[in-house]
Amino acid sequence: MSRDSIREAEKALAGIGRTLDEKKAKKTSSLKSMWGMIGMGKTNKQRLVEQSELQRKYDLQEEKVYRLKQEQEKMERQAAEAGDQKDEGVPLFVDRTTSDWINNNLKPFR
């Protein structure tokens, strides 16, 4: 998990939240003007269905963000524990230039 995927998930969550807030605001304002528009547009039931679907999407996205953050924290903890356990004098891996240097400069000492 990278921090970018967490940011993208948070952006999606914010977008769904804004849409949900707009739907809620539209619902309250449309109730005031409902009497003038009877028979036009969506019914209250349709609006409630849309709002509940948006709320469900928001909840799912929120859960996804939470799981991504938990996974990121878990990986960071594991990396910190691995850093505590490793010997600081020994590199985790040796690249080709380092191995060439070792072979050329330390051969006489073998």
What attributes does this structure have?
75% helix, 110 residues
What do these coordinates show?
There is one protein chain. By secondary structure, the chain is mainly alpha-helical. It has a domain of 73 residues. Helices cover 75% and strands 0% of the residues. It contains 3 helices and no strands. α1 runs antiparallel to α2. The radius of gyration is 28 Å and the shape is rod-shaped. The mean pLDDT is 72.
Query: Strand count, sense and closure of the main sheet?
Result: none
Output the radius of gyration.
28 Å
Low-confidence stretches: none
Structural class estimated from helices and strands: mainly alpha
Compute the number of helices: 3
Total beta strand runs: 0
Overall average residue pLDDT = 72
Q: Tell the overall outline.
A: rod-shaped
Q: What percentage of the residues does DSSP assign to strands (E)? A: under 5%
* End-to-end separation: 43 Å
Measured as a percent range, the helix fraction is over 70%
Order of helices and strands: HHH
